[in-house]
Design a protein that fits this description.
mainly alpha; 11 helices
Length: 292
């Protein structure tokens, strides 16, 4: 079943590549010399995808750099990030699904739940108020990070190192991951909540990596192909993210593989704290100004 999963992922990535290459070839010849990304764009791809592989997430820092530098017009930032980060995320999924031994039924169930959540939940979630969701998840992640910190110091019971879930916890996890997949369509990241969910269910923190990377790897090629067809992205920065990001993934995967369980749990705490802070900050910034 794992082989079938990898074959399906390869087909998704290949379809996206065909669409992108055709679009690049259709670009007017006079602009071909301006396609090669700058050193800064390559460095941005390396840095953001390195930390993305660690579970930190790439979209928030990428968008921040794009806005601060004016590298990409605001209206093209979503498309550029999706197109540029698609292939690095696919590589992450391939490596983690192959290297991290998660029981196949658990892995496939949770991947399918995330994809179905994003597919069927997009319309429903799009109508929900974004700010209350950000506040709720931000507070929940902050509490979870605190509880995990207490576990690290043996103040609370510690989690486990399982690589599979029994039927009851698996059903609960599938429902939770489906909701996270739906929320991902709102721009609310899946990585941090997924890492906490997996750890709280007593699984090895490494098990979160193929789940969250695989979920995004199946979702991103479809959305990115749409951005490419519509020309709603900037070519050079997108290529910079891709060409700088792919080698960064290999470096970061080696780092994750070499971490012991205690270090990985601290990484989960870091990711949860970072995600909580960014969500609460976004919610605070989007709050309506008080009337005078």
């Amino acid at each position: 079943m794992k082989i079938a999963l990898l074959v399906a992922l390869a087909l998704f990535a290949l379809a996206f590549l065909v669409v992108w290459i055709r679009a690049l070839r259709a670009t007017p010849e006079q602009s071909t010399t301006k396609r090669w990304p700058s050193a800064g764009q390559l460095a941005l791809g390396f840095g953001t995808d390195f930390f993305d592989t660690l579970g930190i997430g790439a979209f928030a820092p990428t968008a921040a750099v794009f806005r601060l530098t004016g590298m990409v017009p605001d209206e093209r930032i979503p498309g550029t990030m999706n197109v540029g980060h698609t292939l690095p995320v696919v590589v992450m999924a391939f490596l983690f699904i192959d290297l991290v031994e998660v029981e196949t039924t658990t892995l496939v169930t949770l991947l399918g739940a995330a994809v179905l959540g994003a597919w069927f939940g997009a319309g429903l979630v799009a109508r929900l108020p974004r700010r209350p969701i950000q506040i709720g998840i931000g507070v929940a992640l902050a509490i979870a990070a605190l509880l995990f910190t207490l576990k690290q110091f043996d103040v609370a019971p510690s989690g486990g190192d399982a690589l599979h879930l029994e039927t009851g916890p698996l059903v609960f996890a599938a429902l939770a991951v489906a909701i996270l997949g739906a929320l991902n369509t709102l721009g609310i990241g899946l990585y941090g909540p997924c890492m906490i969910l997996v750890a709280l269910l007593g699984m090895d923190p490494q098990a979160a990596f193929p789940i969250m990377m695989g979920s995004c790897a199946f979702l991103m090629p479809v959305g990115s192909a749409r951005f490419v067809r519509q020309g709603a992205y900037s070519i050079r920065p997108a290529l910079g993210l891709t060409l700088g990001g792919v080698p960064a993934v290999f470096c970061a995967v080696w780092l994750v593989e070499s971490m012991d369980l205690t270090t990985l749990r601290w990484l989960v705490i870091l990711v949860a704290t970072y995600t909580a802070a960014t969500m609460l900050w976004s919610a605070w910034r989007s709050a309506p100004s008080p009337r005078r």
